[in-house]
Design a protein that fits this description.
The complex is a heterodimer of chains A (185) and B (147). Chain A has 185 residues and is mainly alpha-helical. Helix content of chain A is 65%, strand content 5%. Chain A contains 9 helices and 2 strands, in the order αββαααααααα. In chain A, a hairpin with a 2-residue loop joins β1 and β2. The longest helix of chain A has 19 residues. Helices cover 41% and strands 20% of the residues of chain B. Chain B is built from 5 helices and 6 strands; from the N terminus they run βαβαβαβαβαβ. Classes of the chains: A mainly alpha (185), B alpha/beta (147).
Chain lengths: 185, 147
């Protein structure tokens, strides 16, 4: 038997954080996604242990300020792309307001750390979401284009092809064939 | 400022191609560590004897002893190698062929460029997008790129 599951990363991460922090009896506050305030002094050994246990879940404690801000930019972008009622403002305005820095500063910092631009990263995330929706097989490409605020299906198709080098229908074909093979095993 | 790097492996029986490949990476902005193998068997022997896996493996399709497709199938069969992205690096550009390698589990298909400047640009694009998958926790199952 084969099951297809759908998961919410935010909930998983939050649950893991809560479990681990509670395990060490730490007083904490989860401020926003990706930001936790520990309300007491933490023993060095415990901190080391906590870091190790979180690492097993792929959660890293970021110590560098710049990397932390880049992570916030990424989180804001993901939220912007994946949220149903996406804000109807330009992404540059949205990010600058949300993170309280000028867009120029954010943009330079982002490129330094990630080797790609914010604009490009937004496109990558939108195409990722498109892939996920195509793989789920529930929405047509037209519906996906509408959901992700593309002006037309053609625009989405072209961007998909530019980013991945293949067309959305080829992508769907490949994913379907892979599943058929996996199911036969 | 970035201590992190991408660990890359290449299996290609052509010595010139291996040299071009290594040179192209040494000129990129992203930190990389490149290891090359003369054929598929050498690559597989290495993978089966190590615990530190490359982030991405480039496979030439036409190699003696063990070719690229055989390596791809072997890598995909072993769950130990789940996190490795596979790039097919080939001179062929037949549509059917390309789709078949994707179905078999390849993530990237690269048509070998004929000049060094294009090669550098291509590899830079591949590594940059792979870096995003590596650092942003994107779903590797949906990672398909043809370039």
């Amino acid at each position: 038997m084969k099951l297809y599951v759908k998961f919410d990363f935010n909930i998983i991460c939050k649950k893991v954080l809560e479990d681990k922090l509670t395990k060490y009896n730490l007083k904490y506050r989860i401020l926003s996604f990706g930001e936790v305030e520990i309300l007491e002094n933490i023993d060095k050994e415990i901190f080391k242990q906590l870091t190790k246990e979180l690492n097993e879940y792929g959660i890293d404690i970021i110590e560098n300020q710049k990397t932390a801000l880049v992570q916030k930019i990424k989180d804001a972008i993901v939220e912007m792309v994946f949220k149903e009622d996406a804000p109807n403002v330009k992404s540059s305005v949205y990010l600058a307001e949300k993170l309280n820095h000028s867009y120029g500063y954010l943009s330079n910092l982002f490129s330094d750390v990630t080797y790609t631009s914010i604009e490009n990263y937004i496109i990558i995330q939108k195409i990722e979401y498109t892939k996920q929706l195509i793989a789920n097989n529930k929405l047509s490409l037209t519906e996906i284009a509408f959901k992700l605020n593309y002006s037309s299906v053609a625009h989405l198709s072209t961007q998909f092809k530019n980013v991945t080098g293949i067309t959305p229908s080829a992508f769907q074909r490949i994913i379907t064939k892979r599943r058929e093979i996996a199911n036969k095993k | 400022m970035n201590k992190e790097y991408i660990y890359i492996a290449l299996a290609d029986d052509d010595e010139d191609d291996r040299l071009f490949f290594t040179d192209a990476f040494s000129e990129l902005k992203i930190n990389t560590k490149v290891q090359t193998f003369n054929d598929g068997l050498a690559l597989m022997n290495f993978l089966n004897s190590t615990n530190i896996f490359p982030n991405i493996i480039f496979l030439d399709l036409n190699m003696p002893i063990k070719n690229g497709i055989e390596c791809l199938e072997e890598i995909k069969k072993n769950p130990r190698f789940n996190d490795i992205a596979i790039a097919i690096y080939s001179t062929s550009s037949s549509e059917e062929h390309i789709e078949e390698t994707f179905v078999k589990g390849a993530n990237i298909y690269i048509k070998k460029p004929s000049d060094f400047a294009t090669l550098k640009k291509t590899l830079s694009d591949v590594v940059t997008i792979n870096w995003q998958y590596h650092t942003s926790g994107l779903n590797k199952d949906n990672f398909l790129l043809r370039i």
